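Cross-posting from the chemistry board since nobody answered there.

I work mostly on the small-molecule side, so proteins are not my area. We synthesized 2-acetamido-2-deoxy-beta-D-glucopyranose and want a rough idea of how it might sit in this target. Sequence and SMILES are below. Is it possible to get a predicted 3D structure of the two together?
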Amino acid sequence: MGVALAYACSILVGIFVICPWMCLGNNNITSMQWRRQPQLKKCNVYEGSWVFDKSYPLYNSSACPHIRKEFDCQKYGRPDNLYLKYRWQPQDCHLPRFDARDFLERFMGKKIMFIGDSVSLNHWQSLICLLHAVVPDSSIEQHTDGSVTTSTFQDYGVSVMLFHSTYLVDIEEEQIGRVLKIDSIKNGQIWKDIDILVFNTWLWWYRRGPKQPWDYIQDGDQILQDMDRMVAFQKGLTTWANWVNSDVNPNKTKVFFQGISPSHYYGKEWNEPGVRNCSKETQPISGSTYSTGLPQAAYVVKDVLKTITKTVHLLDITTLSQLRKDAHPSSYNGFRGMDCTHWCVAGLPDTWNQLLYAALIAKTRRNS
Ligand SMILES: *[C@@H]1O[C@H](CO)[C@@H](O)[C@H](O)[C@H]1NC(C)=O
Ligand SMILES: *[C@@H]1O[C@H](CO)[C@@H](O)[C@H](O)[C@H]1NC(C)=O
Ligand SMILES: *[C@@H]1O[C@H](CO)[C@@H](O)[C@H](O)[C@H]1NC(C)=O
């Protein structure tokens, strides 16, 4: 059931219980209903707080095969499990619970693709585990072809795909070296045939030194050694936005952009100055705001999305993820490095998928 509809029903039921005559007998709309109405449209599912819910997590991660060693925190010895037991509660409405069987039936025969860096990998693995929980192992087929890894839920013909791309725009090998082409997006040819696209890019835009996967940036005719990275991000994202405007057929394809996924290396952001990683964090931040506000990149994302004339849904997970300093692997992963950037699976990315599902079912109803 859609968020808006669920909320409308809960209000109607609420009014009915308190004073049933309002809903019976005549067509007068009470002033109470009128006053409530504007709230319906206003409910922003991305504003809220984390609440304890003993029915969580939504699946048992040890039953989900092939979780990457980077994300399988329980398997690699994370001793606490409180972090698995939080549900996102929007301020003004309820999110529908993730219904894996409904998801598979609703999107029968469709392809859904996550496109981006390792945060997309994180997001994709969570969706596979959520769906895996309701079908037999034997009905899931996985294969990799170049940059694309596909898990097919064969009984439903649903393909959940991952397209690895650090910047969305192109990197090409040329005589001078590797060139990041911030105004070229050739893979769009592949993406535009997919039914549901979920984009993400951010992590790599500030990489420097040996981890930087390019030697030069090309912007139009200019070849540059480097440029302001936030400007580069804005330009690259604009190339993507122009591609959406020119190449996406909104009758076929629904487009999402995932907001900036935050990391937690600076304890002063949650009032523990001196702390330099997330290793001691076992609980979310209470309330609905984070001390630093949104990172600058999140504003760049919002500004660029405004230039898109087609419907693109911002999966605005930044603030709700900022509150989850407890949800990173820290050292409970298969390589033992300290990781306060990615997220445990099961864990926070399940909520990203719950929000994706809520947005999709709201759209499906409107469009059909
Ligand atoms: C999760 O699954 C594993 C193996 O399938 C099982 O041993 C464990 O008890 C399960 N955990 C919960 C909380 O159900
Ligand atoms: C999308 O559908 C509408 C209404 O059916 C139609 O007018 C429009 O041409 C279609 N657009 C594309 C790009 O196919
Ligand atoms: C993580 O932080 C703890 C305490 O804040 C510190 O003792 C430890 O050395 C840090 N570990 C890494 C790998 O940074």
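Reply from a structural biologist on the board:
Welcome over. Reading the output above for you: The radius of gyration is 22 Å. Residues 156 and 194 are 16 Å apart (CA to CA). Happy to explain the token format if needed.
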